[in-house]
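## retry 2 of 3
previous attempt timed out at serialization; input unchanged, resubmitting
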Amino acid sequence: MRDLVAQQEEYIISMRRAFHTHPEVSGQEFDTRDLLIRELEGMGVPYQKVPGTGLVAVIQGARPGKNRLLRADIDALPLQEDENNLKGPKTCVSARPGVCHACGHDAHMAMLLGTMRVLLQLREQLCGTVYCCFEEGEETNCGIDAMMEALKAYPVEECFALHVYNALDAGKVNIVPGPRMAGNIGIGIYIHGRAGHGSRPDQAISPIIPAAHMITLLNSAFMNRLNVEETVTLGLGVLKAGTATNVIPDEAYVGGTSRFFSAEEGEKALALINQIAESTAAMYGCTVSYQTYRHKISPKAVINDPEVAKRTADRLRSFGLGDRLADCDRWFASECYSAYLDRYPGALGMLGIRNEALGTGAAHHNEKFDIDESVLKLGTLAELAFVFGEKAPEII
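## retry succeeded, writing output
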């Protein structure tokens, strides 16, 4: 298996660089999809276009068995890339101003294509069908609903995905049970008052004062009313109201996010946010409304299934890669891959890319973000370990 993947390394790296050079933002991955289709058709793999820019490719094994799903996200970020990483010049840089793969989705696509090429070589030993999903718009969650709707047509039983991770050393992979990435509560609160002149605040109803109190009350409530044994963060990033110093506005806005790993505590936190917003506004004669598209829990937390995680890690050990398995902290970023795990047993693996000598280790969504391409073989082997978790090919 390791030899088969090694034979694909040059291809995987070349595809990662092709995707990296020509990135596209969420919902606009048209050239990216065309490139993926070119590769799929070159392999002779049938595929379905998902409304938007997503794809589902199908590799049917010659033997009966479980139907499994592999997923890669395909979008980039609206960010100007730095030509240098933390150490010096990068191997390749985006050719599109203001857009770059600063989260590693280029690597995710390349590894999945490499995995598919190996699966085609092992089709006679492959049990069941593998559905390979290339998902639109993970950064904005704009493609997840269409993908989940499309997948209703397929008898998927288990799923697996990888995410490159800057906080883990290159050459290491983390595949463990339980919470791996946080769920997200989007906070978007409009406070409605009554506008007036700044000289007579008594004749207006200021939304600014309750907005300020909401912020302090939310911080206090998160410290005192949520379970201290369950981490729930609060990050308020926006407070907007008014445009003139002598005019009291009729509306204020408070926005931010909260991250959690326990579904129960996440629901509790959202209810607490709403209770404080509404009661505080009422005290000052104001009302509230919520920003519909963001004031909710989305996505949920990524929680790995114990059996799938253990089986995949065990198969990697059988490949002679037990020393590559490593532990790492939970990641407080959020991932719409949680929607797959909400429907199917599965796991998300973290693939380390931090290499100080190469300068790869900058934070995700950072202009200096870069990956150590030598890890792409390991990621491909992790995906194959999932596919062949219960029955390894006879060649092993």
